[in-house]
């Protein structure tokens, strides 16, 4: 198993509680978790949200080593966020080195922000791990179907989000393939100074961008060849309906979200 075995947009076929939930339910719960994470300003208020996400991982029957493999690619971003807060946040200084001033508030915010980012990634990843991409698009489209009356292209927006979700693991695998190819040609991407390794990123980013545009063109040609015209005349083979466990899950998530809102107001 590679480090990109599990990522955002990768569906894992299992018979778990989350897999059986309606896609609309999972979309709403994920959005509520994202809003709750955005409002978090302290570690105590982060605990309930973290508990919900960890509970979701357990209910989805996701193994811990799979979660670890999924988190590994975002560690550089987490470290970058932490460094920015540590070096530039104002407050009570505990270490000064020239223009860089490390503060207590910066350390606190760095830890909190890194955890928020990791939990947000896991919440989004859970949505993809437990839902087929086509169901993601159908669920989002049915959830915002009333907006069609105002001329909003709901189907096009839902399809765009679903395609972006689906292409994420493909791009991650392509990034790894290009990286191994460049290293086989002698590129030193894992050793040397930070500046030297940053310069070598161009040999990865440019081929990845070219591959992305090629994929997009191939997809558009395939959709035109199949006479795809959006939602005009299209029907769904399966039409899901909200069941008791969907309603209970939504009620519990809404109660948690409202409780956190009042906790922040106190």
UniProtKB/TrEMBL annotation:
One of its GO terms (cellular component) is plasma membrane. It holds the Pfam family CbiQ. Keywords: Membrane, Transmembrane, Transmembrane helix. The keyword Transmembrane helix applies. Its main location: membrane. It is found in: Membrane. The chain crosses the membrane at residues 43-62, 74-95, 107-130, 150-168, 247-264. It is a multi-pass membrane protein. It comes from the Bacteria. The keyword Ribonucleoprotein does not apply. This is Energy-coupling factor transporter transmembrane protein EcfT. It comes from Collibacillus ludicampi. The gene is ecfT.
């Amino acid at each position: 198993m590679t480090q990109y075995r599990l990522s955002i947009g990768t569906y894992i076929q299992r018979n778990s509680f989350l897999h059986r939930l309606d896609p609309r339910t999972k979309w709403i719960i994920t959005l509520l978790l994202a809003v709750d994470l955005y409002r978090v300003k302290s570690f105590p208020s982060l605990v309930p949200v973290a508990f919900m996400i960890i509970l979701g991982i357990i209910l989805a029957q996701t193994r811990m080593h799979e979660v670890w493999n999924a988190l590994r690619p975002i560690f550089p971003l987490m470290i970058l966020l932490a460094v920015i807060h540590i070096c530039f946040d104002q407050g009570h200084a505990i270490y000064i080195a020239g223009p860089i001033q490390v503060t207590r508030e910066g350390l606190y915010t760095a830890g909190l922000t890194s955890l928020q980012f990791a939990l947000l990634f896991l919440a989004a990843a859970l949505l993809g791990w437990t839902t087929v991409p086509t169901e993601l698009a159908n669920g989002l489209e049915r959830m915002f179907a009333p907006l069609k009356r105002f001329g909003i292209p709901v189907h096009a927006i839902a399809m765009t989000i679903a395609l972006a979700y689906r292409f994420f693991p493909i791009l991650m695998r392509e990034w790894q393939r290009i990286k191994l190819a460049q290293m086989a040609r002698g590129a030193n991407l894992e050793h040397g100074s930070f500046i030297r390794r940053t310069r070598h990123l161009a040999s990865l980013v440019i081929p990845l961008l070219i591959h992305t545009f090629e994929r997009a063109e191939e997809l558009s040609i395939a959709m035109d060849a199949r006479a795809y015209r959006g939602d005009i005349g299209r029907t769904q083979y399966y039409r899901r309906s909200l069941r008791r466990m969907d309603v209970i899950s939504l009620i519990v998530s809404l109660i948690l979200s409202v409780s956190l809102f009042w906790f922040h107001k106190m």
